[in-house]
Structure formats: structure tokens, C-alpha cells
Automatic annotation (TrEMBL), chains A, B:
It is found in: Cytoplasm. It comes from Electrophorus electricus (Electric eel). One of its GO terms (cellular component) is cytoplasm. Catalyzes a late step in pyrimidine degradation. Converts N-carbamoyl-beta-alanine (3-ureidopropanoate) into beta-alanine, ammonia and carbon dioxide. Likewise, converts N-carbamoyl-beta-aminoisobutyrate (3-ureidoisobutyrate) into beta-aminoisobutyrate, ammonia and carbon dioxide. This is Beta-ureidopropionase. The lineage of its organism: Eukaryota, Metazoa, Chordata, Craniata, Vertebrata. The keyword Nucleotide-binding does not apply. GO terms for biological process: beta-alanine biosynthetic process via 3-ureidopropionate.
Amino acid sequence: QAGAIETLEKTLETFIPDAELKEVKRILYGKELKKLILPQKVVEAAQEREFDLQGYVFEAAPEQLRTPRIVRVGLIQNKIILPTDAPVLNQITALHKRVSEIVEVAAFCGVNIVCFQEAWTMPFAFCTREKEPWTEFAESAEDGFTTRFCQELAKKYNMVVVSPILERDEIHGGTLWNTAVVVSNTGQFLGKSRKNHIPRVGDFNESTYYMEGNTGHRVFQTQFGRIAVNICYGRHHPLNWFMYSINGAEIIFNPSATVGAVSEPMWSVEARNAAIANHCFTCAINRVGTEYFKNEFTSGNGKKAHHEFGHFYGSSYVAAPDGSRSPGLSRTHDGLLVAEIDLNLNRQTADKWNFKMTGRYDMYADELTKATQNDFKPNIIKE
Amino acid sequence: QAGAIETLEKTLETFIPDAELKEVKRILYGKELKKLILPQKVVEAAQEREFDLQGYVFEAAPEQLRTPRIVRVGLIQNKIILPTDAPVLNQITALHKRVSEIVEVAAFCGVNIVCFQEAWTMPFAFCTREKEPWTEFAESAEDGFTTRFCQELAKKYNMVVVSPILERDEIHGGTLWNTAVVVSNTGQFLGKSRKNHIPRVGDFNESTYYMEGNTGHRVFQTQFGRIAVNICYGRHHPLNWFMYSINGAEIIFNPSATVGAVSEPMWSVEARNAAIANHCFTCAINRVGTEYFKNEFTSGNGKKAHHEFGHFYGSSYVAAPDGSRSPGLSRTHDGLLVAEIDLNLNRQTADKWNFKMTGRYDMYADELTKATQNDFKPNIIKE
């Protein structure tokens, strides 16, 4: 069943005749994107390394006073490598190796900013509610093994690296956090951004491990543009995307880990709506594959205990402020999505559609402040 | 071109084989909805009256302490009837007649709450920037010709009527507003809700005619559930949907008038995202057809003057909190979409996914308040 459809787009292309396909794609994906022309050796490298490689171009109109602001982003989705009961350090190292071979191809593609999936150095083990060995995957954001690994990649390829990990914060009692580390293309640790909204749904028992992030809605000024990281469940919260945008984010990454029949139809809606509503680019990344755990666990849904909770459906994509979006990566295989973006499209779209100008934020600040009070009286009109 | 695709769903169904179609629909539309079984005489009445009739059922799980809270909503989309230079009263009367014959079928379908399209008594003439004769279409919300017409319908069919009109407010200097009137199923004027966000984009020169609404985010308690009206351009503003939901809306109607290659790919995203993010139902209604105006007008895009600005693409639909949605009505023909909704699905979805519980609204109230200050310093981290 997981493999029934490799990608939605390929299924549409297989069966729908060209004339209708053009209209179907326009309605579903917005304006047609050019494919990014990639050198043959790059295409071959992706084939040899067995991952889906796709590239698209988001163009903007020429302007008189600004040159195009071209940036290439890379989104990486991947399976875990070793069984989940392999030694922790072996699991991490195997993932480092796999991701580094995909990043090398991203570098061949001229990627300037790469983002990995949520908690990319580990299986998504929060379904188990076990503390060991999963908490051993936590690392210092500032100078952990994985951050140092990313700093090497960043320097080697002159690439900004967004690295979402399980963080252990030794300075604050050794607490855990779900955190994205941002490494500058110079190899410097630029900062970290924590997951603001923590799920309590189905197998996503993350509130057992870490609290809501306390790093607010910071935006990172990189050489290639201003970026922010809205981790996973935060994609369901329009206010979260919004506040990153208000702080100036031009590209918001959404590294995720999500499964299931309810989640998948939402996947193509949420990050894309955020790109439209906030006049910015969004990059939605989901892992792939099914992860098996040695000890059985239940899912709080009355069903029998089991060892896995379904396949992560991949389908990573990039969405643009003008409502256009790229196709999704594979639903089942590792992949690298490269998008060449002209950031000038953000302001061009904003100047045309004016959502920020017409946003009436003073009214909402006032209404929201009132709504958070305990004695809030909803504005309800009755007969 | 307008007619190239009648509906997206029909095109998918025509070309994609059953096995793949099931997966394509699951990914694009969420869980499969039952079709509403409608009596043959009703289907025939719709055929005779030449409009697209579709009906779907949004089910919820049974509960122990609450009975199902079933409501049937009706969404009506239609073309204008007479040429735009016909006498004003004739145009209004012709639309009353057309809509009343669709409402009669809605009553046959057991509809409890019906909503018409934005500014439904008139052509969408704001493209012209002419004041006359368009301002003559404005009426009193409380006791205008059209409100009295809706009151008759409401009483006759025991139906709540949401009637979006161009309002003239005599008490406040005769100002115009873009307003939805809500008439109770008893025939009483229940209240009005004004459009909160006014576009300045392309042919939508509405800020020439009326200002941003001053009725906040009121919600109407009807016999069939709590409803709110987010008019047209407000669908691009996630905060607008959100605040109706915070005030308790269970169903948010989005009567609209929209055209164009940029708008259409956004159409299926925005109201649906709002249903997901706010654990409520949303009903997106767009008019159909192309409206010709006697005097030529320009569109602020460097192109030659013209007499029409493209076809309203219809595609009205209902979206549910669990990410499922109905197919769209026709892109080219008048239509009535009937959705049987169990409002219990809202709380069931909220209890499972917890977006309000995990919303951190105090943080956002604080951040948004700061962001609206003139001396706001965005939270940007630099190397």
C-alpha cells in the first residue's frame, strides 16, 4: 500500500492526456516551473547512490533597481540506515555517511542552503515512550558531534546547513529539546531554533521528552537570504509561520516526520498555504520509510501493540508565494529536491497581493490579547 | 479555455484507473465521503433548472454523551442573469428569481443553512471604478429589499440564510460596506458581518467603494450551529479565520468572487487549511461566468482596456477539520452543493490533534503586539 503510488505527480502524468494534464497541473500546482538542468554526472551520481533527484526553478520578473536574488535550496529526505537496536553511535554515524553522500550531490547541484529532516540523526522513536536508548541520541546544539559534522560540510561546500536534531542543553539542567541548528556557509554555528509546538497525537508522544521551544521566532540572516525553521507540528499552526515571516523570513523550512491517512492530505495544504499567506517560500521535508522497534508499543487508539506505526510518506516539496509549488519527492525513497529560487518573487507578490499591508495586525493583537484572558467572552450573537 | 475542464474531479475520474484513483483521491481529498442520496425529483428539478447539484456527507464517530449534531449546509454559486447595463432593479429581481429557484431545491434537499456568493445581487463591477450605477445596488442590511426577500425564504423553508450584499449604512453617513446579512430560520434579522480585509489587486478595486469592516469577528448562534462569515479576500488572512474560530464558529462561510490563473491554484488550499488549522468546517463559494461591462476599463497591468476580466471559476467546496473535503462544483455552471455535516467532528478532531491546546496564544498575543509597534525590531540573528 505504501508503494501504491510513487508520487502523485507521476500518476497524473501517466494517465491524463497532455491537454487536460496541463489544466490539471495548473489548478493543482500553479504556474508551470522550469526543470533545473542538471549535469549528467550529477544525475548519475544520484542514481548510483539510489535517491530521487529533482530540480525546479522558481523565477521572478526582472526589476530595475534590484538584481535577481537567486538561491538554490536543497531538501533531503531519507530512511534510517541501521536497525533501531543497533548501537547508538553506529546509527548516528551511518546517517552521517548517508546524508553526506546526498549533500555531496547537492553541492554538485550548486545548492546554497541545505535542510535535513527532523531529528535526522535518529529513528523517530518517540512512539515508544521509552527513555533509553533514545535520549542518548541527544547532542549539544553548539558543539555536538553532529554540529561539528555539519560545520565540516558547510565549509567544504560553502553551504548553509540546517540540521534538526534532538538537543541536550547541559547549561539548563541537561534538558532535551527538538532543535534546528543553523550553520553558516563559513562553518560557523549561527544559532539554533527550537520546535515551538509539540504534538500529543497518536504515536507522536514528543511531550514525554521535551517541552515547547523557548527560542521564539528568530530568523537567521545568511549570505543567501533570511531563513527560519518551523519544525514539524508547527506547520499546523498558521501563527507560527506568520511570526517567522513578520520577523523577516524569506524562506521557512519545515523539517518534519509524519505518517498516516489523516496527515497526508494535509501535507500539501499547510506549508503551501503558509507560503501564500506570508509572501515567502516554504520548504516542507518529511522522512521516508518504516521504522521498526524491538519492543512493542501501543498507539492510544485501542488497537493491539505493534512494532512500527506506518510509513513516513516523504513527498517533500517547495512552495512559492504566488501559489505555485514543486512536485513532491518520492513517497517511498530517499531524495534530494533542489529548487532555484529568485527571492525577488516574495516582494513582487507582496506588492501585488498586499496581504501584509491589509493584515490589520493591530486589531488582531488586541483581539488575541483579550481572547487569552480567562474571563474572555466570545463575540456570539444570539436571537 | 474556461471550459477546458468542467471540474478537476471529473477529469481525474475520467482518466485515472480505479486502483490508482482511490489513492489519488485519498491524497488530494482526504477520507472518502459518502454521497448524499437525493430524491429523484430533486435531481430532476436541478436538471430542469440547469444547475450542478452535488451532495456529500461528512460523518463523525458516535459518542456516549452527545447525539450527532447533524446540519445540512447549502452553497449556491451562480452567474448573473441580465446584462450589466440592464436597469438595476431588473438585475436584482432576476437574481432573486434565479436564486429562489435554487433555494427551493436546497429546501427539497433538507438544507438548514444556505449561503449565497459575495455581492450576490449584482455583477462584480468594482473592476470599473465607476460609482454609477453600481452604488445603486447597495441596500440596507437590516431592512433592504434583499434582506426582506431572504426573510421570506427563511420562514418558508425554516432555513438560515447568509446573504452577502453591498450594504448602504444610512445611519453612518450613507457609507457602503461589503456585508453578509444573517437571517435566522425564524425569518428574523440575526445580524450582519462585514468584510474585514479589502483587496487592492488587479481588477479588485474594492477599496474605491468601501472600507475594512468594523464588525470584528462575531459569530452567529443559529438553531443549527454557530456560524461566521469570512468574506472573500479574508480567506488569504489566516488570522481572520482564526479569530472567527476563537469566538466559537463551527462553520465558517467564505462567500467570494475570484478569477484568474494565480487565484485558482490557491482556492483549494486556503479555506481547507483554515478548516484544518481551526478544527472547524469551512465553506468556500465562488461565483461563475464572465461578466461584460459596457465601458472599457484597464486592470493596472499595462494591458489594453477591455470589457471583462476573465471567468469566475466556481469550484465551490466544503472542507472539514480532519483534512477531508468535498469535490468542487462546476467551474462554469451554476450549482448547489449540499453537505450533511456532523458538527461533532470538530471537537473529535480537536481532542485528537490539539491545535488549540498547543496554540501558545499568550506568546503570539505578546509577539504580535510588539510587532505592530513602529519601533519593532525583528528578531534576526546575524553572523
